[in-house]
Amino acid sequence: MSDATTGPEVPEQRGVRDQARGEVLHRHARLTKGGRPIFCTPSRAEIEGHVLPRQSRGTDGKVIYPTREAAEAAARELESLGARLLRSYRCGRSRGGHYHLTTDTTVRAGVPLHLRIPQQRSPLSA
Fold first, then answer.
1. Which residues of 60-93 are buried (b: 16+ CB within 10 A; e: fewer)?
2. Helix (H) or strand (E) holding 101
3. What string of pLDDT tens digits covers the 126 residues of the chain?
4. What are 102's strand-pairing partners?
5. 3-class DSSP state of 38
6. What is the pTM of this model?
7. What is the DSSP letter of 87?
8. Are 62 and 101 within 8 A, CB to CB?
9. Which ranges in the chain belong to alpha helices (H)?
């Protein structure tokens, strides 16, 4: 009997709840050569206290998306899997510009479901 997989193998990742979410990260996040998502970490100078932290501690450990488009696409897919509304933002620690996702707490997030435009509705809530 062969034990072939039908899709890309998603490595064990911290913070990933299930295979579907892991596949979203695999498609959109910046990956290591081994295929694991890259997480944002402080620079050595930040850790040693030679420079002021460029981001708050809450940014450490967030998945890196290479472009805003990749982050937005991941956000929409994660929302369709049941995540809260998400938005992308540019990381202040990044020289070249990488992006993270955060929970969207803007007014649009507080609009009742029946008043949202279709792109803001989750297919699971229809």
1. eebbbbbeeebbbbbbbbbbeeebebbbbeebeb
2. strand 99-103
3. 455 555 445 445 455 558 888 899 899 999 999 988 988 887 788 778 887 776 655 556 789 999 999 999 999 999 888 888 898 988 877 777 899 998 887 766 555 655 555 555 555 554
4. 87
5. coil
6. 0.64
7. E
8. yes
9. 19-28, 44-48, 68-80, 107-110
